[in-house]
Each structure stands twice: as structure tokens, then as C-alpha cells.
């Protein structure tokens, strides 16, 4: 039998390779891993107990919120509060950030989308959790909004958990992207996808093509190109699941601006930045159609952006169609 490397062991080993690491980020990552095991347990029970129905509320971005979103949100917040390594959080499901009081001056803040793909919860289709960790910039006892409004390039770590046919956690601290599969019999995330590298190019495009007529002409021209090429289409409707497939098999995932959402649908801080860090870490590209996602300076927590990410050759190709298009990209 090959040696099993658990997530906790991998995090500790990686920390040993960094002479100045204090262990705080490692501890925070382990706490997120623990929280995600609890969320995974609850997601797996969703069909059994009545927690999957709509909660009849909307989140601050105007989307339907379902009960499991809030459960995942509360679980993550309480795990991060107990962690002691995090001085503030911001969640897609919260109006604003929440400072966390810790016994010491914690260095990190965490942003997350507690449950991505919520329209897929009650049909047993893959959903996920996305997280981004930044070093705080402020020195006061409490964190401030500026700690959260940092460019994605400043992320100390990012990752997601995919609740799919198995539960997987994929994370990066900027030195390689590694994937772990949860073995429910031992309750451990085990290294299953070491050093993930995205294929340079592929033939899979992933977009909600029903919006075709609402997209700007550059995105339309790129979709026309995909349809006229030897490409195939896959679209799950959970960004985590679509991006996970893109990381492993290659391809491009994109959500352009639409007439009703001229700034795009997906959130820069909770969804696009962490997934962009992972995709870039695996050798891919992530763009808003013109500029690198990780270089966007956010001005608000719930900011949205168009996004094009995946195999570098395919993102380059999409950008070329957008550049050549005469339409204003908004
Ligand atoms: P969330 O469930 O966190 O609100 O995110 C849903 C997002 C994303 O996961 C997915 O890629 C996209 O919405 C799907 O949108 P459409 O249904 O408009 O295609
Ligand atoms: Mn989401
Ligand atoms: Mn969500």
C-alpha cells in the first residue's frame, strides 16, 4: 500500500519547507478543512432531512438563498471564530464583514462563498465551498474594510471544497495546487491529485449559452467560434464544479456580462479571485475578458466581474475575440 498523505500532514510538511512560517496559516487551513468536513456531512444528509428547501430569503446579491447555504455559512463562521487564527471574515451570505476577537493579534482574514451552486442543492448535483485567505493590512485591534478590499494577487492561500460524487478539497498557498479526496471511512482528506497542472489547451467550453443574446458581441463571437470548432460544451451551473473539471480536463469556463448584469454575475472576492489563484497556480489563466482577474482592485465586498478562466490557450483565444469585437464591453 502506498503511503497516505492526509491534508493535515501535507499542510504541516509544506510549512516545514518555509523557514519563517509561524504555523498560523497552516492552522487556519486545517480549521477550514475541518469545517468543510462538517459541511460535507450536512450536504450528504440533504436528501434525508428537510434542510434542502428554500429559506424564502435573498442574499445581499439578490439571489435565492437556501437553508443549506446558511447552515454552511454559520458552520464556517463558527469554525473560524474558534480557530483563533482569523481576525475577520466576509461571506457572500453576509451584508458586510465581521471582525473576530481573538486572544492574540491574528494576521489573517478569510472570505468565502459558503455554498456555491445553490440552485443544484435540491437536485443532488455537485456544489462547493470557496475560500480566500489574505494577510490583514491594518494594525488596529479590529480589522477594517481595507483588509478585505485587496487585489486577488495578495491572497495568501485559496481553495475550494467540492461536494461531488466524492468530496474533494483543492488548495494552494502559491506553491503548487494540490487536491485531496475525503475518505469518509477514516474521515480524512487524502492527497489524490498532487501538483495539479491544467492542460495548455482543450476542446471544452463551459458557459450558460441560454444567455447568448444577452452577452456582449465579443463573447457572442467567441461562442460562435466554439460552435464552429471541434469543441464540446459542459455546463453544470455550480462554478466550483465547472472550474474543477476545467482544472483537471482543461477547457474554458466563462460568465460574461449580460444586459441585466452589466458587471457580470460572479463575485470577484468570494468566487473569481480564489478560483483565479488556483487556475493560475495550475498554469492556467483568469481574465475579465481584458485584464487579469487577480489585478483588479476591489472597491466593494460584493463586487461582481465577468470572468474567463481555464487553459491558457483558450483564455487567450477568448480575449482575442473580445479585443476584436467592436462593442463596448459592458
Ligand atoms: P451561488 O450559488 O453561490 O449563488 O453561485 C451560483 C453561481 C455559480 O456557481 C454558477 O457558475 C452560476 O451561478 C450559474 O449561474 P446561471 O444559473 O446564471 O448559469
Ligand atoms: Mn457562488
Ligand atoms: Mn453561494
How would you explain this protein's 3D organization?
With 330 residues, this protein is an alpha+beta fold. The protein has 2 domains: 187 residues, Fructose-1,6-Bisphosphatase, Chain A, domain 1 (2-Layer Sandwich), CATH 3.30.540.10; 126 residues, D-Maltodextrin-Binding Protein, domain 2 (3-Layer(aba) Sandwich), CATH 3.40.190. 31% of the residues lie in helices and 24% in strands. The chain contains 8 helices and 15 strands. An 8-stranded mixed sheet has the order 4-3-5-6-7-8-9-10, sandwiched between helices. The longest helix has 21 residues. The protein is globular and about 55 Å long. The mean pLDDT is 93. Bound molecules: 2,5-anhydro-1,6-di-O-phosphono-D-glucitol (AHG) and manganese (II) ion (2 copies).
Give a quick precis of the structure.
With 330 residues, the chain is of the alpha+beta class.
Features:
single chain; 330 residues; alpha+beta; Fructose-1,6-Bisphosphatase, Chain A, domain 1; D-Maltodextrin-Binding Protein, domain 2; 2 domains; 8-stranded mixed beta sheet; 5-stranded mixed beta sheet; binds 2,5-anhydro-1,6-di-O-phosphono-D-glucitol; binds manganese (II) ion
Amino acid at each position: 500500500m502506498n503511503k497516505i498523505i492526509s491534508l493535515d500532514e501535507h499542510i504541516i510538511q509544506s510549512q516545514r519547507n518555509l523557514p519563517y512560517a509561524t504555523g498560523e496559516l497552516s492552522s487556519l487551513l486545517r480549521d477550514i478543512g475541518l469545517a468543510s468536513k462538517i459541511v460535507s456531512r450536512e450536504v450528504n444528509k440533504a436528501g434525508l432531512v428537510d434542510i434542502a428547501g428554500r429559506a424564502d430569503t435573498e442574499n445581499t446579491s439578490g439571489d435565492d438563498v437556501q437553508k443549506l447555504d446558511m447552515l454552511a455559512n454559520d458552520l464556517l463562521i463558527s469554525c473560524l471564530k474558534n480557530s483563533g487564527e482569523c481576525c475577520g471574515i466576509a461571506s457572500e451570505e453576509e451584508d458586510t464583514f465581521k471582525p473576530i476577537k481573538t486572544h492574540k493579534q491574528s494576521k489573517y482574514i478569510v472570505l468565502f462563498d459558503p455554498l456555491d451552486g445553490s440552485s443544484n442543492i435540491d437536485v443532488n448535483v455537485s456544489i462547493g465551498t470557496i475560500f480566500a485567505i489574505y494577510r490583514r493590512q491594518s494594525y488596529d485591534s479590529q480589522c477594517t474594510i481595507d483588509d478585505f478590499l485587496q487585489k486577488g494577487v495578495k491572497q495568501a492561500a485559496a481553495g475550494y471544497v467540492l461536494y461531488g460524487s466524492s468530496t474533494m478539497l483543492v488548495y494552494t498557498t502559491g506553491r503548487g495546487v494540490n487536491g485531496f479526496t475525503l475518505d469518509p471511512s477514516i474521515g480524512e482528506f487524502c492527497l489524490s491529485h498532487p501538483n495539479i497542472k491544467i492542460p495548455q489547451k482543450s476542446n471544452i467550453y463551459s458557459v450558460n449559452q441560454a444567455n447568448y443574446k444577452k452577452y456582449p458581441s465579443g463573447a457572442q463571437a467567441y461562442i460562435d467560434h466554439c460552435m464552429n470548432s471541434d469543441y464540446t460544451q459542459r455546463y453544470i451551473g455550480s462554478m466550483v464544479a465547472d472550474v474543477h473539471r476545467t482544472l483537471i480536463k482543461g477547457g474554458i469556463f466563462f460568465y460574461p456580462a449580460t444586459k441585466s448584469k452589466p458587471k457580470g454575475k460572479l463575485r470577484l472576492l468570494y468566487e473569481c479571485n480564489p478560483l483565479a489563484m488556483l487556475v493560475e497556480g495550475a498554469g492556467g489563466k483568469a481574465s475579465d475578458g481584458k485584464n487579469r482577474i487577480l489585478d483588479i482592485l476591489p472597491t466593494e465586498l460584493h463586487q461582481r466581474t465577468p470572468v474567463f478562466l481555464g487553459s491558457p490557450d483558450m483564455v487567450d483565444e477568448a480575449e482575442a475575440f473580445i479585443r476584436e469585437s467592436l462593442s463596448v464591453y459592458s
